[in-house]
Amino acid sequence: MASTNKTEHLLLNSWIETDRPQRNDFNSDNHIIDTVLGEHIEDNDLHLTETEKSRVASPFVVVPYVGTGEKTTTISLPVVPKFAVVYRKGMPFSLYDSQSGVNKVYGGVAFTSGGGASAGVSLSVTGGITLEQGAAESGGVYYCLNEEGSQYTVIVFR
User: 3-state SS of the chain: helix, strand, coil percent to 5?
Assistant: First the structure.
């Protein structure tokens, strides 16, 4: 015999002294609990996926590198990037050299999803950042993003 009363939210059996519980009552309650909890656990609108948990736990990675002097270099990244910042240690992002009339670029940013990038920097959705070294094709800009022996840092956001 099902219970005289039911719980408020899941309508589980809530017996009074004169009720006579049956195995089927318990099995029915267990089925209700399993269904409700199972749907809750699998609801990705309420819970983070494993990928999302890793992003929350460690939202960025720092990758140091030493410049090679080559015109372009691609640095492999340990995570799939959304956004990256690169800069040469001890230098501003950009510095105007008044003697040569050239703007030297020592840093930049890049996005993978439609956000664009600073000139001289590109970011791949497969996990690499490409950096340029040398004069821009037009204007007085010189990219200093891979100077031989110089130390750089790439901060990669997931």
Answer: 15, 35, 45
